[in-house]
Design a protein that fits this description.
The structure is a single chain. By secondary structure, the chain is mainly alpha-helical. It has one domain (about 10-160). It is built from eight helices and no strands. It has helices at about 15-20, 35-40, 40-50, 55-80, 90-100, 105-120, 125-130, 135-160. The longest helix has 26 residues, at about 55-80.
């Protein structure tokens, strides 16, 4: 597969799976595409937090169950494993981050910062999963762990504040 700096051609975005994988275009941001992908998830999280918890869980499970395939399919089409433009994994990770968090903009902002920190810095064991798991599952799984770490931090903050 070619390098991570490979530009995504407009014709590739005509494929609905690739378009979904790049966060409906948010992953095309020339600066911090993962942050852009997480940012476009904020309205979805806000909407889901207003719904019954079962709806939130169902939506998150849908993203998780399709994530490995969507990310792997897009990586194959783009011929780059874990292309920076693929941000469907950020959507999954941020949904996890906010799944049990209290509602409110302060929690959304804190969750956003925590998730971006864990996803970008990749402390152990996130870094191990990032380096050792491949394919669509590998693209997705380190963000799942980053989401779990972020959620745990939010719950600890909520407990001790």
């Amino acid at each position: 597969m070619t390098g991570k700096n490979r530009k995504i051609h407009i014709d590739e975005l005509k494929n609905p799976i690739v378009f979904t994988a790049v966060g409906f275009g948010s992953g095309l941001s020339p600066i911090a595409p993962g942050t852009a992908g997480t940012l476009v998830t904020v309205p979805l999280v806000y909407y889901l937090q207003q719904q019954d918890f079962l709806i939130y869980v169902t939506a998150t499970l849908l993203v998780l169950l399709t994530g490995s395939w969507v990310c792997g399919y897009a990586a194959n089409k783009l011929q780059v494993h874990d292309h920076p433009g693929i941000v469907y994994d950020e959507v999954a990770g941020f949904l996890i981050t906010m799944s049990l968090a209290p509602a409110g903009w302060e929690w959304m902002l804190t969750g956003f910062v925590l998730f971006r920190f864990f996803d970008a810095v990749k402390p152990w064991p996130i870094s191990w999963f990032d380096k050792n798991l491949h394919g669509g599952f590998g693209i997705l799984f380190d963000d799942i762990i980053a989401g779990i770490f972020s959620l745990c931090c939010l719950l600890l903050i909520d407990h001790f504040i």
